[in-house]
Amino acid sequence: MMKTIGITTTIPIECLIAAGCRPVDLNNLFISHQNPSQLLDIAERAGFPLNTCTWIKGIYGACIKHRLETVICVTGGDCSNTLMLMEVLKLKGIKTIPFAYPASPNPEAMQQEMEKLCRTLGTSMKDAEEVRQKLAKPRSLTLELDRMTWEDGSTTGFENHIWLVSTSDFNQDYLRFTREIETFIIDAHRRTPFSSDRLRIGYIGVPPVFANPLYSFVEENNARVVYNEIQRQFAMPCSGTNLSQQYSNYTYPYDTAGRVRDISRQIKLRRIDGVIHYVQSFCHRAISDIIFRTELGIPILTLEGGSDYNINQHLKTRIEAFIDMLERSKIEKGKN
Fold this sequence. Notes:
Layout: E1 3-7, H1 13-18, E2 21-25, H2 26-31, H3 36-45, H4 54-65, E3 70-76, H5 82-91, E4 95-100, H6 107-121, H7 125-152, H8 157-165, H9 174-189, E5 199-205, H10 211-220, E6 223-228, H11 229-234, H12 243-249, H13 256-269, E7 274-280, H14 289-295, E8 300-305, H15 313-335
Parallel strand pairs: 1-2, 1-3, 3-4, 5-6, 5-7, 7-8
Helix pairs in contact: 3-4, 6-12, 7-8, 7-9
């Protein structure tokens, strides 16, 4: 029986699979729970402050609810709160394994971190590289689905989100994931594409706590999300020639400047009219909004999410106003 290991964010899961382990993204385990608030209650009863990030509390609640024995905690390149989360998990008798992305995207430093992880798990980089080849197919299928979203118009923004975000652990079974996405792509090719006159929206920032309501509401207002930044990065769009390059090309753990370059390319390629930047309450990454507004040169709507799994009327009004502004701007450009 495969050993299940929780992960606090995307890591080189090739190392886990090579060691005969099943990676489980605790974020997905939390947000897909039938009652996510129940997992937050577990964390708050344990003493987590109310102003702690929802994702951190949700991860803790998922660990306790599902009785996980081992968790890999990303201590560099993700959330600073993970350091204290790791200490609390240890207190509760859960084995924790630290993993840190290098301070900058350096393949040599990345190689060292992965070798350390492989030794801890009882495997080798050679075996992990073999797993990388096995994951090439589901990753390429997911990126094909992404292309279908922005180029063909045959998949929705939420479908794009849910498939891409699932590549952090391939829903705990990459073989089943491959079969399911192959079937989905075949069915999606038979659809009538979205109308080309809809506004094209880019989504940047961490995945939202209110994903389905957000994407659905955007589509109800004659727009559609054709780009999910971090979710796309989970699928490793720039794979390189080996694992150390692949995870050095993965933009999320590194500086915002690298993300800006990647986002700017996609804005141009996908002909994006405006960007929604999602920030999580009490998250240090919210400060990056300053950089995005300065560097991207495109209208940006910043939305903050807490522990509400739906979009309230205030957020709906802001989204409607943003889309209306983009529509008027597009009409004015068309006149000139």
